[in-house]
Write a structure and sequence with these properties.
It contains nine helices and no strands. By secondary structure, it is mainly α.
Length: 249
């Protein structure tokens, strides 16, 4: 008869193998879906066709995460209400193709106003507070800090910094539906473009600035002055003093 401890250890070993296989399978699926999301972001591809709504959510893009948050929130709670709004905003965005760069461009050409409105709505209602802080809050804070900072001759790139911040914020406001990694690349491109425009402003301001005088050194203190600076008694010769020599009176 087998020992009870031996049976327990064998069962424990089997469970570890089962859980390990499940973990590796989930990890592999996550890595694969990450790659699929980036491929979709650049090309619009999904497992079920170009910008297919079911395919978008199947790879974890679009409304997939919002649906998961809604499913885990209690019905009637404030969290569930916010999650339902996030689902609706993401569904509208993915139906317009705003989860990929080609789809976004096509929608923008077709109806710019509706595209920007849907993109902003998705960013505002369809993302988490952390997402909004990274794509909107941080660039706005840095831009504001650059704008209120006084002009400094040692940092002549104020216009570049402001232009980069404005461009990054503008792109982040309407591209929240695009997977994060690709969205970050878009944001970096916007930073470079906005910075280039701001750099032109810096050059213009530099040409328009009045010429500056050289640095004027303050007068030295008496004790630091060079040369004789202590009063001494002067002795004049009789001739210099206007006195005639003796015998010429």
């Amino acid at each position: 008869m087998r020992d009870l401890r031996e049976v327990q250890l064998e069962a424990f070993h089997d469970e570890l193998q089962k859980q390990g296989s499940k973990w590796y399978a989930e990890a592999g699926k996550s890595v694969a879906n990450f790659g699929k999301r980036q491929l979709h972001a650049f090309t619009g591809w999904t497992p079920h066709g170009y910008n297919n709504v079911r395919g978008i959510e199947e790879i974890g893009a679009g409304a997939a995460h919002a649906r998961a948050r809604a499913a885990s929130a209690a019905k009637g709670s404030a969290a569930r209400e916010l999650a339902d709004k996030a689902v609706a905003a993401n569904v509208e965005a993915q139906e317009k193709g705003l989860t990929s760069i080609p789809g976004f461009v096509q929608s923008l050409v077709k109806d710019p106003k509706a595209t920007l409105r849907t993109g902003f709505n998705q960013q505002w209602h369809g993302t988490t507070n952390f997402d909004k802080s990274m794509t909107l809050g941080l660039p706005l804070a840095l831009t504001g800090a650059s704008a209120v900072m006084p002009d400094d001759p040692n940092n002549p790139h104020k216009g570049r910094d402001i232009g980069a911040g404005i461009a990054s914020t503008a792109v982040g406001m309407v591209t929240g539906g695009i997977p994060m990694t690709t969205g970050m690349l878009l944001g970096e491109g916007a930073v470079q473009a906005g910075g280039a425009v701001g750099g032109l402003v810096d050059k213009y301001r530099k040409r328009r600035a009045p010429p500056t005088m050289g640095t004027v050194q303050p007068p030295r203190a008496p004790e630091e002055a060079v040369g004789q600076h202590v009063a001494t008694e002067r002795v004049l010769s009789p001739a210099a003093a206007g006195q005639l020599p003796e015998g010429y009176a």
